[in-house]
Design a protein that fits this description.
Two copies of one chain form a homodimer. Chain A has a single domain, classed as TIM Barrel (Alpha-Beta Barrel), CATH 3.20.20. In chain A, 45% of the residues lie in helices and 9% in strands. Chain A has a seven-stranded parallel beta sheet with strand order 2-1-7-6-5-4-3. In chain A, helix 3 crosses helix 4. The N terminus of chain A is likely disordered. Chains A and B meet through helix 2, helix 3, helix 4 and helix 5 of A and helix 2, helix 3, helix 4 and helix 5 of B. Chains A, B: Belongs to the DapA family. Chains A, B: It comes from Halomonas salipaludis.
Chain lengths: 306, 306
């Protein structure tokens, strides 16, 4: 039983702020993390929405060190540590374990496509064996729309059998509820099954999942965490509808630039607009459309300007 | 005019040997590179077939340093230096320039899919600007079947206009001859257009392309280089047919493991069988089938055991 975070957990793949020369901005990063924690949302730093693959390993280690130095509790962090090169995955995973992070969210090597389960098993196995720590907790990251490297149920089962004390969960960002359901049915008693979006939060919790790790938890953390706490309450359906409606607004735009634009706008801090290539910020027209749609939806980021 | 290698060039994406703990094996690497050079094939180290994305930046820098230290001429090298993180691409590209490499073959950032030409332009632009060297020659790497991030003709045009002294060519591994043809028609007078396989070598040279950068140049370098030299000769079609037939044998197997198996077998050196996860070596049955098919095809790697 590795479940550290039984039902009702929300994590945010924390967006990463950049300075004028596109260097990571550790102060703004810590401030955003504090605000998320204050809204009862955990820190899945270095996720897809964090532009993690656009950061070098040393940049990520520097950001992690800076968060810990700023007093952000590592026990509330689940850094993304999967890279194409095993050595990179080992280096960042080891750093996360040394800092006492709750776990790591691990992408498979994602350059080669159509690789075998045997190859993916060896990838995760090599990283786990090389890190070699009883404190390591690995959350597998299934995100075929982006990585194009799916993690099959057979692979999850094999990893769980080989590393029952290490494999702690999976994030399902397939967007396919039937896959999440199958994961919960197969493994939900043993490990944490997270939905990749709050669209599926209530469904996930009712089915026996652990909660969600969601992009929009960067901007709407309070209400998402509220449903994760109150999912057995009378107004859970209404809360779910409100969450999905707001998520729908963001989904009309490229997600990562839209999260950053909203953060810039509602925090009064233009620096948040910056992204690293190959991603591109929203243009003026898109920003205006997003601001207008968020305003119409009654969106707010309470306490953000403080 | 940036063309360093006018018509008739063959490069090999050099396969990378690993030791028992999957560490890069610089001695076997240098030996293989020498054999390729002796067959008139240039060294596109750190390509897709090199398992380059499975190597950390420091491992690649170490291998490049070791080749130079072993007396392999950098002027015959075209390392792959594109990574998802710009800082990684800059670091390895700078090292290649400092060593005097002929050029670098650059993948776009490949994690995010469906990115815009603007984002890809910024990616290449940031790397070029940050390296900031008049000696830099960039060969763009179009390999949509693997990277899933195609480079459009409009993007190539824009990069060529912005960096006419730096953009030196493109490798087209789309497998789509009509795309290679369009690239040659649009840019073949200005830059080197390489086919990604010797299947298209004669077609490429007749149309005005520069040659090929091909996986199977690792194992069949002599005959491929011979056609690149003799493509205007009377038996060019016959040579092309022989090359394609042998390539077809390798294409019946997973390509990278098959290249390594053939190298192990024909060089009498089992260490070459090793691959890094997520790739997996051929199993016993596949090895037997490959050996038999190569034997039937009259395949050899002359001078390999020497």
């Amino acid at each position: 039983m590795n479940r550290l975070h039984r039902a009702g957990q929300v994590w945010s793949p924390v967006i990463t702020p950049f300075g004028p020369d596109l260097e990571p901005d550790s102060d703004r990063f810590a401030k955003h993390c504090r605000w998320l924690l204050g809204n009862d949302v955990g820190l899945a730093i270095f996720g897809t929405n964090s532009e993690a693959t656009s950061l070098s390993v040393s940049e990520k280690r520097g950001l992690l060190d800076s968060l810990v130095a700023a007093g952000i509790p590592a026990a509330r962090m689940m850094p993304g540590t999967g890279h194409c090169a095993i050595g990179d995955s080992v280096e960042l995973t080891r750093s996360a374990v040394e800092h006492g992070c709750a776990g790591v969210l691990m992408l498979p090597a994602f350059y080669y496509k159509g690789v075998s389960d045997e190859g993916l098993f060896r990838y995760f196995s090599e990283v786990i064996e090389r890190v070699g720590s009883a404190a390591l907790r690995v959350y597998l990251y299934h995100i075929p729309p982006v990585s194009q490297v799916p993690l099959s149920l057979a692979l999850v089962e094999r990893l769980l059998k080989a590393y029952p004390d290490t494999i702690a969960g999976i994030k399902d960002s397939s967007g396919d509820w039937s896959n999440t359901q199958a994961l919960i049915e197969a493994f939900g008693e043993e490990i944490d099954i997270y939905a990749g979006s709050e669209h599926f939060l209530l469904q996930n919790l009712r089915a026996g999942g652990a909660g969600c790790i969601s992009a929009t938890a960067n901007v709407n953390p309070g209400p998402i965490a509220a449903l994760a706490r109150d999912w057995q309450g009378a107004d859970a359906e209404q809360q779910q509808q409100a969450l999905s409606a707001l998520r729908g607004v963001f989904e009309q735009f490229p997600m990562i630039p839209a999260l950053k634009s909203a953060t810039a706008l509602y925090g009064g801090d233009d620096a948040w607009h910056r992204l690293r290539p190959p991603l591109v910020e929203l243009d003026a027209e898109q920003r205006k459309a997003l601001a207008s749609a968020l305003d119409m939806a009654g969106f707010d980021m309470p306490g953000r300007r403080a």
